[in-house]
Amino acid sequence: MKFIFLLLLPLGLLSQTKVNIQIMQKGTYCGGARPNPEILAQHETPKPFANKKFVLVSANTKTCTVTTNANGYLKIKLKPGSYKVYEAWRYYKKTPDGSDMKNFDQECLKSAWEKVDGTIDAQKKSQSVIIDVDAVYCSHTIPCLLNPLYPQ
Length: 152
What we know:
By secondary structure, the protein is α+β, with helices and mostly antiparallel strands. It has a domain at about 15-95 and about 115-135: Immunoglobulins (Immunoglobulin-like, Sandwich). It has helices spanning about 1-15, 35-45, 90, 105-115, and strands spanning about 15-25, 45-50, 55-60, 65, 75-80, 80-85, 120, 125-135.
C-alpha cells in the first residue's frame, strides 16, 4: 500500500498549476479639501496590496488562506479549476476595519460578504493574474458603517 501511495503522490503534484497573482489596491482621497488632478491620479494609481490575507475558494468549496508578500504577490500551486478570491474579512464575515459589528448595518454587511474580489482560472500551466481591490477606506467610506465620521 505504501508503494502505491508513493507512485501516486508525484502524479498529484504534477497536476498542479503554478499561478502568480498580484493583488493591487486602489486608494481613496481622504482629505477635506478638494484635491487637484495630480493628487487624485496619485490615489487612483493601483499599488501592491502587501502582506494581506485572502481566502481562495475552489468550485468544490475547498478553501486555502494565503498572504501576499511585500510586493502584493501570491505565488502558489493550485489544482486545475476555478477559484474565487475573497478578502479575509469578507470570507470570515467580519467588519472591513475589524471594529465592533454593532456599528454596522447587518443587511449591508451580508451583501458585502458575498462580493467576490476576484477569480482565478488555474487551467493553464503557468499564468499571472492581477486582481484590483478597493481596500483603502476613509473613515467616512467604510462599507456599511452606520455613523461614519466625515472629515472636518
